[in-house]
């Protein structure tokens, strides 16, 4: 990669991960995801309140995820052409403009256009963050740096999801939209401090050179995690019986609260012992947690299961991403980040859609058992990657 920002090189060779640029990146990531999560559950409520019902709420989310996946395919190339600073700033502007535009109308054409724009902005900040983290931290502390980034983007979900719903109920939809837009605009203050360098991808695209790159197995393992995440985050509130429904928020909190810190802890451990050996324990822990949801009528089993899944999911997030950036040259960190995010969003969507088709004939308990089986199968590629695959590492 051609680097025009000399301070980036200095940050990469320093033993500290708390460089000025890394701190600014964490602020940008935290702010952008706070703005995003504030509206993630509010937009469906807004659409439903406007008369579009559940189908309109689903269409809004679907449009956002479609735009996210399609944009992720292009982010690495955009960074190569325009640099991290400009692309990240564009992503923040998309999030801000889309939030503000929601105050104009709750009609579906506008909402769908807004969700497409939000999806594109989300894709940009989601891909830029891990790629730039891998650039800014020294290789021997990359796992910890990626874990710290995981906390910066994980905590906003814990804060933003419930806060957005609460604010919309007490202050109204429009004020929440303006708060979200304001957060994204305020975060732009930190964006000029990001590196402005740009580079060239060796394979010309995200999927180019995928086979034989060492990225297939960690991508497949991570996709198994996200399939299960799509299931539990979409259907848990529907699966638990009415008498236990009050426990749903606590179960979701148990997962979302432990995941970012498990991700950070895995990064610290991975730097010392390698990320590959963490994959099998991560998959197994998440599988046990998913299996606990078979007893969906028991709040204790569900909360414990979600906590275990959250631990395994957090470890798996860090281990797979660390392995992927180890296995590509520095000029392709953006490609590895884009693939990882594609596995996240694609797996999440596949899990939600597939489980929705499955539960009709088999019911929720059997459906959750099948979901746990997805992770059990993923132990096979995880086991093959347990040595870490450092022979595929390219730091040049």
Q: What does this entry look like structurally?
A:
- With 396 residues, this protein is an all-alpha fold.
- Helix content is 76%, strand content 0%.
- The chain contains 14 helices and no strands.
- The protein starts with 5 loop residues before the first helix and ends in a 12-residue tail after the last helix.
- Residues 1-14 and 389-396 have low confidence and may be disordered.
- Give the end-to-end Cα distance, rounded to a whole number of Å: 8 Å
Estimate the strand proportion: under 5%
User: What letter string, H or E per element, gives the SSE order?
Assistant: HHHHHHHHHHHHHH
Helical content (DSSP H or I, runs of 4+) = over 70%
Strand segment tally: 0
Radius of gyration: 20 Å
- How would you describe the shape? globular
Structural class: mainly alpha
**Largest sheet entry:** none
Q: What's the overall average pLDDT, rounded? A: 83
**How many helices does DSSP assign?**
14
Unreliable stretches covering 5 or more consecutive residues: 1-14, 389-396
Summed up:
76% of the residues lie in helices and 0% in strands. The chain is an all-alpha fold and 396 residues long. The chain is globular, with a radius of gyration of 20 Å.
Q: What are the salient characteristics of this protein?
A:
mainly alpha, 396 residues, 0% strand, 14 helices, disordered N terminus, disordered C terminus
């Amino acid at each position: 990669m051609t680097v025009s920002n000399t301070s980036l090189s200095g940050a990469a060779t320093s033993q500290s991960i708390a460089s000025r640029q890394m701190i600014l990146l964490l602020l940008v990531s935290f702010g952008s995801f706070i703005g995003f999560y504030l509206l993630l559950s509010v937009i469906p409520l807004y659409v439903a309140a406007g008369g579009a019902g559940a189908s309109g709420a689903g269409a809004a989310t679907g449009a956002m995820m479609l735009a996210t996946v399609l944009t992720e395919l292009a982010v690495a190339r955009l960074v190569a052409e325009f640099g991290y600073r400009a692309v990240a700033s564009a992503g923040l502007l998309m999030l801000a403009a889309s939030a503000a535009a929601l105050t104009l109308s709750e009609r579906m054409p506008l909402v769908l256009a807004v969700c497409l724009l939000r999806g594109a902005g989300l894709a940009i900040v989601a891909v830029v963050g891990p790629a730039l983290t891998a650039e800014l931290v020294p290789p021997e502390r990359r796992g910890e740096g990626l874990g710290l980034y995981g906390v910066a983007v994980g905590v906003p979900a814990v804060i933003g999801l419930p806060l957005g719903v609460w604010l919309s109920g007490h202050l109204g939809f429009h004020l929440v939209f303006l708060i979200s837009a304001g957060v994204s605009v305020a975060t732009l203050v930190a964006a000029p401090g990001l590196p402005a360098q740009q580079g060239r991808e060796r394979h010309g695209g995200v999927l180019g050179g995928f086979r034989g790159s060492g990225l297939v197995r960690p991508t497949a393992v991570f996709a198994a995690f996200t399939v299960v995440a799509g299931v539990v985050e979409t259907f848990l509130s529907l699966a638990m019986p009415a008498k236990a429904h009050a426990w749903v928020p606590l179960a979701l909190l148990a997962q979302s609260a432990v995941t970012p810190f498990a991700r950070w802890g895995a990064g610290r451990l991975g730097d010392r012992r390698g990320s590959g050996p963490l994959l099998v324990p991560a998959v197994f822990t998440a599988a046990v947690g998913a299996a606990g949801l078979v007893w969906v009528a028991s709040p204790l089993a569900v909360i414990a299961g979600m906590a275990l899944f959250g631990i395994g999911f957090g470890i798996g997030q860090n281990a797979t991403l660390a392995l992927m950036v180890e296995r590509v040259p520095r000029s392709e960190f953006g490609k590895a980040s884009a693939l990882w995010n594609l596995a996240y969003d694609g797996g999440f969507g596949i899990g939600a859609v597939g489980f929705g088709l499955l539960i009709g004939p088999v019911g929720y308990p059997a459906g959750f058992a099948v979901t746990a089986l997805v992770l059990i199968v993923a132990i096979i590629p995880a086991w093959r990657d347990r040595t870490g695959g450092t022979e595929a590492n390219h730091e040049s």
